[in-house]
Amino acid sequence: MGTLVGHVLPGLGFFLIGLWHLYNHIKLYSLRPKAYVALSWFPTLKHRHLELKVILGGSLIFIVAELFIGPAKHQPFDLDGTIPTNHLHNFEHAMIALTFFVYASLALCFDF
Asked: How many CA atoms lie within 13 A of 80 on its CB side?
C-alpha cells in the first residue's frame, strides 16, 4: 500500500489542501453564483500567501525526505553520476513534488 513518509503523509496534505479549496469554492459560489470564477489558490485573511508557503515547505521537506533521509538514501547518485535502479521510485516521487514546488513558487512570483 505504501509507506507513511512516501504515501500517507503527502496524501493527508493533499486531502487538507483539497478541503481548503472545496470550502473556498463553495463559499465563492454561494456569494456570487453568476460571477463565480475558480481560483488556483486562496489567500487567507491574516497571511495572504499561507497556502503557497505551505505547499512550498511541504514539497521541499518531501523532496529532501525522498532523496536524502532513510536507509541507504544519503547518496542519491552513484559514483559515476547515474541514478541507482533501486532509487528510481525516490526520484519519481521527488519530481512529482518538484512540480508542486515550481507551481507554488511561480504563483508567488506572479502575485508579487
From this structure: 3
Is the pLDDT confidence value at 2 over 60? no
pTM above 0.90, yes or no: no
Q: What angle do CA 47, 50, 52 make, to 5 degrees?
A: 140
Number of structural domains the chain divides into: 1
Is residue 101 scored above 90 in pLDDT? yes
Instruction: Name residues whose C-beta falls within 8 Å of residue 94's C-beta, 6 or more positions apart in sequence.
Output: 62, 63, 66, 67
Q: Provide the domain limits for residue 41.
A: 4-111
Span between the terminal Cα atoms of the chain, in Å: 41
